[in-house]
Amino acid sequence: MQIDAVDQRIIALLVADARASYADIGTRVSLSAPAVKRRVDRLRATGVIRGFTAVVDPAAVGWTTEAFVELFCAGRTTPAQIGVAARRHPEVVGAYTVSGEADALVHLRAADIAHLEAALERLRAESFVTSTRSTIVLSRLVESPGVGPSTRA
């Protein structure tokens, strides 16, 4: 599917505020509300836009401690095995295969250090994990809600 510059701007605006009206978006991209709706419907039908969601501030729900954990795995552990295991842990907010020494990188969020330690111990107990290396986040410097061009225009 071809995505033009207008589609990219619509996507960026929806990433910034998924509750924006088609009329508001249309004003920003110089289209009518029905034209924006048609484009959004097409983007959804083709799988470019997979859904709409609420973005929750982790601090507002008390999960203010986070870490990135490098996983080192045994033998022929597959990405699918890592993904299945990661989904078993509610503290996991992202898991990625990576290049370099580690086999995967896992992003954890927890209420406090004790909770983080417990989550890390459960993750380490997965049968294929041979070792881990953790980095605790001190502060967030840049955080972007999505992909595409900036909505600042």
Automatic annotation (TrEMBL):
Instruction: Fetch the SMART domains from UniProt.
Output: HTH_ASNC (SM00344)
Q: Which GO terms describe its biological process?
A: response to amino acid
Gene3D superfamilies xref list: 3.30.70.920, Winged helix-like DNA-binding domain superfamily/Winged helix DNA-binding domain
**Looking at the record's lineage, which domain of life comes first?**
Bacteria
Which cellular component appears as one GO term in the record? cytosol
Q: Does the keyword Transcription regulation apply?
A: yes
Which InterPro entries does the record associate with it?
Answer: AsnC-type_HTH_dom, Dimeric_a/b-barrel, Tscrpt_reg_AsnC-like, Tscrpt_reg_AsnC/Lrp_C, WH-like_DNA-bd_sf, WH_DNA-bd_sf
Listed A to Z, the keywords are: DNA-binding, Transcription, Transcription regulation
A GO molecular function term, named singly, is:
sequence-specific DNA binding
* Ranges for domain HTH asnC-type: 3-64
Pfam short name (any one): AsnC_trans_reg
Name-wise, this protein is: AsnC family transcriptional regulator
